[in-house]
Give the backbone structure.
Amino acid sequence: MHKVEFKQLDETLYHEKLDNGLEVFILPKKGFSKTFATFTTKYGSIDNHFVPRGEKEAIKVPDGIAHFLEHKMFEKEEGDIFQQFSKQGASANAFTSFTRTAYLFSATGQLNENIETLLDFVQEPYFTESTVEKEKGIIAQEITMYDDQPDWRLYFGIIENMYKNHPVKIDIAGTVESIQDITAEHLYTCYNTFYHPSNMVLFVVGAVDPEAMMKLVKENQSRKTFEDAHEIERIFPDEPVETAVKERVLTMSVQKPKVFVGIKPEKMDMQGSEMLKHELAAELAFELLFGRTSDFYHNAYEKNWIDESYSFDYSLENGFGYAIIGSDTAEPQILADEIKHTIANAVEKWPFGQADLDRMRRKKIGFFLRALNSPEYIANQFTRYTFNGMNLFEVVPVLEEIEVTDLQQAFALVSAESQQSVFTIEPPAKKEAE
Amino acid sequence: MFETIRLAKGVNVHVNETTQFKTINISIKFKDKLSKEKASARSILANVLQHSNEAYPSHTALRMVLDDLYGTSLYMDSSKRGNEHIVSLNVETVNDQYLSESGVLEKVLNLMYLVLFKPNLEHDLFKETIFQREKNAVKERIESLIDDKTRYAQQRMMDLALPDHPASIPATGTIEEVEAISNEKLMEEYRTMIESNEVEIYAVGDVKPETIAAYIRDYFHFTDREKPLAAPSMELKKPAQQRVAEFEDMKQGKLHMTFFSPVTFRDEKFPVMQLFNGIFGGYAHSKLFVNIREKESMAYYVSSSYSSQFGLMFVLAGIDGKLEEKAVKLILQQLEEIKAGNITDVEFGQTKALLTNQLTEALDSARGQIDIYDQYMELDEGFEPDYLISRWNKVTKEDIAQAAQDLSLEMTYFLSGKESEINA
């Protein structure tokens, strides 16, 4: 077992890669009563075209299948796994994102039993045609619930605008129609391909004894047999740098129009330290341009173009990414134009110097230290970083190295007009009095 | 866990000195009676005070100094509990032992002082442009409620079931009352808040109780104050209608039900109701989840929640617009099961285990510690996790069946798409 101390952060991380390929990380937190554990596979909604384990030809699977599989993992022949966690005093849950499926629990007691339950239920699939059919009604209601949420529609609307071919444009849960095609056989195919331990990470954080926990996990894993690890062949379509749709409007029942400007990064194949530096530098650049101390924010707020719903975000994965900026607004056109002008002006003449960078760097370091109070943040983010070849605990040292020119370079990759798109949700036009 | 130091009559500092967290959290809570007018005025006030102040007269200036203090988070919010309205100033700052700089805490406390005591004024009123802008922001926040159909449906049901009751008054206030508030009225509310509200100050982190108390005593000018006498009544009156259906442009149907219970937070039967809620619909092992979601595949979410301040029990479910009748029938069937005492040992044990886990787990966050302590402080026995857990262990299945029998269904509210209206 490797032990890595992060002296500045007062944290010690324990790590081991098991013989079956599973990466196990353990982070004890002093003073905590609870333990939070995540068991995550590098498999999300974008992995819909791949060569199944043991076969030669690539296949395409129905939209929403990774999320469907996540739901079905909880049902076993002997019943629902939630029941087991409840008996052991643990709150369990799971989520599916574009790139990951995570199973998790938090508990303040019976840690060993809960860890065994977590490992066992994810490693013992049980799918039948009738249980698959039964789940369709539940997931259809979940999809319908999201369909009624304008902020979710806005988020997906801008991603759909940006991407022409990449499966990131497909809703994570699929559609009520697409899930009807899912069969138990599909689920086994996806499971066998993506749930091999070598494609997974276990992260345990909180009130945990690292030696005893590692021993428990190893013993659990050595009781099971797995096929050999193999390289998963995932197929992604070519994606142009330009956005697929420049502007689109959706009419929906909302109080006020909503608008998002999206910008697609020029380079989407970064991993490891290159990705970490780029991501942090781009985040700092967007914080300076669009954050709460920016000229843009001040002007837009005073003029009433943005309200408390205003947000901006930069997100990057292997193969796709996006910056998104927007708000509920009575003036979607003006706001979108203003966001685009702000970007164009910064491209023409970079407005920030050393003092600006230093301030944002302090803000970001503070945010990171705050986040380290949260076992949930640590486990989820650490896993995401690991799947992208990065280390979460290098955030502070890398932040300290970043220079103004890094911000400019990062921003240059996420700014061109051709990479931008605008998506607006508008309330239906008011009918004339009859 | 918390050490309490009294600064003046009605003004207390509670500090939990701990190295569990890498940050220091401080909250200053101002408590007043709840009314629509107060909630509306105090929501604007929270926005105006956190916008800027005399020393940092623009939003940008204030936010820049916070960034410089290692991204210290500072915000104000308005909330309610029972018939009290609470305005909080919340701050979280990095413990400077992790930084190359010291004296951060003192600077942060000074900022809190400026936010509360040195507002951004002109002619003895709040700066008019800021007042107007923030008043508008609060109004827009209330208006945007309808974009979140679950929260909207719940608020509609409360407005219809218990109009003008503290349970239905939103912590943010109402559009009508927000519109009616003048700058003069806001200044009056500000004076009341600073001079006569009950003040509870919390700090959690690696800080000495005396340090925080001394700073606040020396720099903040909190004088003696009395608890407000005539708090609004929380008596539950039977709603005028038992079933209401409304329609919006939407796909899913939102079923919301209100039950009255004679048991509240202050009642000795409070632990019985917590257990009842866990068995009925609070968790993924509960009867509602197992039967309506897992067995019938009718819903993605279906749950119950217990509003202990008022003695209200709610059931919420997202279902197909045509299935209201079936869902209500199934939900009431689950309640009948509990009334008849059909509770398994497994359900009973699971619920106690999860309540215990939830309570213990909440103490692993500084905000959780503050919220729980602030709520339990009013009870004579105060806040003792072991004591609370022991109370759950004394509850019997018969107690739970009795609590279920004492519930009365008072309103069923259904919000669904216009399509279901046509087909109905």
Observations:
- Chain A has two domains: 2-222, 247-426.
